[in-house]
Amino acid sequence: MKNYQIREMSTEEIKKRILEEEKNLVDLRFQLELKNLTNTAKIRNTKKDIARMKTILKERELQEAKTSKESK
């Protein structure tokens, strides 16, 4: 998932997607241990997607804090 795709999503959508991806990551790890995972790059890509989404959420939180401070 690209950054521009994540930025188009609402905050609630991103939070929901993070939970889905974390569950997906657990499933991928189980598959890896059971030797059923053929493409091990999926784990790395999933972790990076989660990190991207969390980064954008943090940026939004900081932006909200900044605007609320300025309005006071």
From TrEMBL:
Gene3D superfamilies: 1.10.287.310
Family membership noted in the UniProt record: Belongs to the universal ribosomal protein uL29 family.
Protein name per the record: Large ribosomal subunit protein uL29
An annotated GO cellular component: cytosolic large ribosomal subunit
NCBIfam families according to UniProt: L29
Record InterPro entries: Ribosomal_protein_uL29, Ribosomal_uL29, Ribosomal_uL29_CS, Ribosomal_uL29_sf
GO BP field: translation
Keywords: Ribonucleoprotein, Ribosomal protein
One Pfam family this sequence matches: Ribosomal_L29
Gene Ontology molecular function terms on file: structural constituent of ribosome
Keyword Signal: no
CDD domains: Ribosomal_L29_HIP
Highest taxon in the source lineage: Bacteria
